[in-house]
Model the fold of this input.
Amino acid sequence: MQAQETELEALTAAIRAQPEKVIQLNRTRADFVEKFEALIENYNAGSRSIDDSFEELVKLSNSLDDEQERHVRENMSEEELVVFDILMRPAPELSAEERAAVKKAARELQARLKALLVLNWRQKAAARSKLKLTIEDTLDTALPRAYSPELYHQKCSAVFEHVYESYPERNAGVYASV
Done:
């Protein structure tokens, strides 16, 4: 029993850092932290056995590993994948062709955004406006018509918020070391 608890604690410690790193790169993955915290909470409350908790933590760890490799499967950079996830979560029902168009939009948008991140861009109203307009123009022409006007506006705001939070300066931010 003591050995099982020690193994569970070691696995918990090893997994604890994983969700934080995954979320730092892509906030749409926040559900992994919620699942992890719920598992630990249920174990601590005594509603799960050590064996069940260990098994669930291993499954969560494997799904985190899969998620971290998803950008390779999608043939996208981590930065492009974040924009893609913002556009897809939630998204309307899309055909394979429309999904490919969203993926293309994410790639195009990410490439265009990087060019707009000038020195002190957050402090410059003109730079922020240009960034917002680029997001709106790119998504207006690139997103499938399945996106309603309301959803389009939500996605524009979410992408701008992502860029604002993730790129405090040109060539700096959460992706600088990726």
Remarks:
- The first helix runs from residue 2 to 25.
